[in-house]
Amino acid sequence: MYCQSNDELNTLVNEARKVTKDGKVADYIPALGKADPNNLSVAIHYPDSNCISAGDIERKFTLQSISKVISLAFVLMDRGCEYVFQHVGMEPTGDPYNSIAKLETMDVAKPLNPMINAGALAVTHMIKGSNVVERFQRLISFIQSMADNPDIGYSKEVAQSEFESADLNRALSYFLKQHGIIDEDVEKLMDLYTKQCAIEMNCLDLARIGLVFAMDGTDPINGNHIIPKEIARICKTFMVTCGMYNASGEFAIKIGIPAKSGVSGGIMGAVPGKFGIGVFGPALDDRGNSIAGIRLLELLSNKYNLSMF
Ligand code: DON
Prior knowledge:
- The protein is α+β, with helices and mostly antiparallel strands.
- The protein folds into 2 domains: 4-61 and 201-304, DD-peptidase/beta-lactamase superfamily (Beta-lactamase), CATH 3.40.710.10; 66-197, Probable Glutaminase Ybgj, Chain: A, domain 2 (Orthogonal Bundle).
- It has 13 helices and 11 strands.
- The chain has a 6-stranded mixed beta sheet. It has a 3-stranded antiparallel beta sheet with strand order 5-7-6. Strands 2-11 form a two-stranded antiparallel sheet.
- Strand 8 and strand 9 form a beta hairpin.
- Helix 7 packs across helix 9, helix 8 (167-178) packs across helix 9 and helix 11 (229-242) packs across helix 12 (248-254).
- It is globular and about 55 Å long.
- It binds 6-diazenyl-5-OXO-L-norleucine.
- 6-diazenyl-5-OXO-L-norleucine binds at residues 64-65, 97-98, 117, 162, 169, 197, 261-263, 288-289.
- The site of 6-diazenyl-5-OXO-L-norleucine has 13 residues, from loops.
- Belongs to the glutaminase family.
């Protein structure tokens, strides 16, 4: 799809790019360490199919934690709210995304929300299918339908790199298994989860997915009803309360839109009823969110009064 480069957006990107020097590319997943910290790109997708962009929007990146909100939507459709929320909670943690701390201090070992790694692992566990290949195929088909792009795939290199280094996620999974939240082989769950996190796309695809959330689960361009409105609402609420981890409160105050970040440096934004945003800037702040991506969203929100509050 064609997405027009926009001068105003370019000006904001150039301004936001100044803070990349204060960030750092994630390298705990070794393959992510290769990204260029100075990159910053953005696409905004409108319901009338218009799209504006700035930066190198052909560049692909892996979804990482952005995939958590999509897998949540998928599992809620597959299993229903009652079942899903028996296994994962609805409350923000105020802790980093990979923290194990709250699992042990809660009465039941149920992860507090689906956006932290423990909760996301419980969600991925709930993806239906007879084996990992089928479960992954079902998830990626859903993502392709959200982005209206059948070519979306995953990075084998990033998936493998995370699979080989995901000891903390293995620890979280074994903890969840011990407490009956999950009941599958942890290596199989790691295989599925690391492939899910390695699903790869560009800003334009991400903005289109953000648009579907923004428009209550319907793709306004092709008219497809992809997610029931109620589930889209739940996902957007999680994006506001937990989408930026322990920076979610500050993000809500300064920017005020539902958004989800990933350690690859992507951020998906969904401005309710208005448009979807896809940002990529791999230099991260100390809480694992794209440092220039957040600055850019702040500039955008201030300039165009995007806060929903
Ligand atoms: O599980 C992990 O650690 C990564 N695959 C995803 C973490 C992530 O993206 C956190 N986001 N800021």
